[in-house]
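Morning!

As promised:
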Amino acid sequence: MLNTPFTYMPTGADWLRILPELIVFGAALLVLLADLFIPNGRKGWLAMVCLLGVIAALIGVGYLLSNGDSQTAFYGMISDDTLALFSDLLILFAVGIGLLYSPGYIERHAVTRIGEYYGLMLLAALGMMLMASATNLMLIFVGLEALSLSLYILCAIELTRFRSQEAGMKYFILSSFASAILLYGMAMLYGSTGTTSLSGVQAFFAPGRHPFLATSGYGPLLLAAMGLLGVGFCFKVSAIPFQAWTPDVYVGAPTSVTAFMSVGTKVAAFVALSRVFLLALGAQSDKWEPVFWIVAILTMLGGNLMAVVQRDVKRLLAYSSIANAGYMLVAIATNTQHAFSGLLIFLATYTVMNVGAFGIVLALERNDGQGTTLDDFAGLAKRRPGVAAAMAIILFALAGVPPSAGFVGKYYVFQAAIVGNHIDLAVIGILTSVLGMYYYLRVIWAMYFTEPRNVSGGAGAIAATTGMAGEDEGEPEPADAASGASVAPVRAGTATLARPVTSRRSANSRTVVATQAPAESAAPPLTLGTTVALTLAVVLTVALGLIPGPIVMLAEQAARLLGQ
Amino acid sequence: MPLSAYLAVSAILFAIGATGVVIRRNPLVMFMSIELMLNAVNLSFIAFAHFLNSVEGWMFVFLVLTVAAAEVVVGLAIIVSIFRTRHNVDVDELNSLKG
């Protein structure tokens, strides 16, 4: 077999099938190139280039949806089936919204590597699209690494804010650890089936093909493969007990990146997980279904319970995204075509809600990353009625109040669970959703029915401790803040003396503090991009709740893959 | 040698790597442990490819090697940038985010 020469010539049709990916890749390269010619101060144009690329890719997805042939391309590596196009749509929407948030965020936080930032946003989106479209373990791995490597850098891109660096570091170590486990699972699956192609794996388990399978030595190898793949994917979708990295990374990363990555990686990872487990390993479902059943219950319970005790809204949203991963795992554990379309609908609704929710956090947080606790949300309705109304709509949707997008997503997942004989999962899901209402509605309560508690004083104290000392403390209490303010200059001073190499940096950070301190007492105004993005997210949140028809149809069409 | 011998070595290497990530506190060592895990996987890919007489395992190894190299670049950059800010890269010190 190795002696026969292997030749495969990609045809034009192959290239056409990866049109959206090609456009995103081209736009990313164009951005990196254009970065060299655009002078500082006008880097906003790069966001325009990115957005145009995303819009062009969306048009490409539309073209393939109407004219595509749902075939695999490049020797069975990648597919343009409806499932791939559906996830491309969600990922492109998420990256588009993230890009709209970016210029304002970059300006406020003095991110210096602007060209790299935009280029990596697109490359991360490309990795997600590849992972979701992949029909071969190799491409799943390459897509996963493309998205992870881009996101490590994006998380750590704020060189002056230590929390961003810490988030990048944590994400890097834990995520590459998970990648290695996933990869070992892929090796085991390859070893037990002799192929890396998902359709090959599926054919391997076809009835009657390998009658010896039940008794042969493949058993342990295959079990190890499924176990390792399951652990790796659970890390990626932040299911409990592998969720530890999620809150830290979501809170520490730049908020525009969090908005994008919190949904983009979930879409990519869940679609790849479905392709591997539901599709390729569908015949072995009696072995993996119970595991996902337990993980789904743990994730729903744990995510919601831990979210209840959070005081910081950004962190609360991170735990809420873990809880939502639990609802998605219900669909995986149910393992029917109906549940799979439910999962896709849930992913779509989750995408529009979550990018909106993190957008509000981005609009409210101050330049040092503070200002997102429940106390800061107190009385928001009086100070900024528009933002408060948008947040209220999105939180009602996340809580699953009809007729919002969140209700539609949960309805389809739980209904499919009941039909698919998993009433236990549906009951736990509905009960934990009720628990979820408590912490979502608590934020709305804070915004509409409480008076702001000493906001100007607290904000001033936090502004004084910005920089080196401010980064050390999670939430300085007023008493601590007073001492922190006196410590800050001393610390900065000693740092300058002790470390001549970094003196330029600390001088810079001090001037940044000096110039920004007055502005930090109030949350910055919305930029045009943020306003557009928030409006889009809110409108879609409502629209998906009122007229879910089109997205449901598309999801059902995508889920038909499972019936074949 | 039988396939199981290669797989056993690969599993041992992988376990050493995984243990290293879990118990060591220095990011550089954790990072090396992750590389060890990836190379353990490479060993099993090559062993499988040889015994299955299939070319996909070899191809996968090239992809893994490339990705591992890219991971080194990104990882070391993040470690260096943290070291510049803090002059300390012990992961127990990375505790400003919690709750």
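Chain B touches chain A through 47 residues (CB under 8 Å).

Hope this helps with the figure draft.
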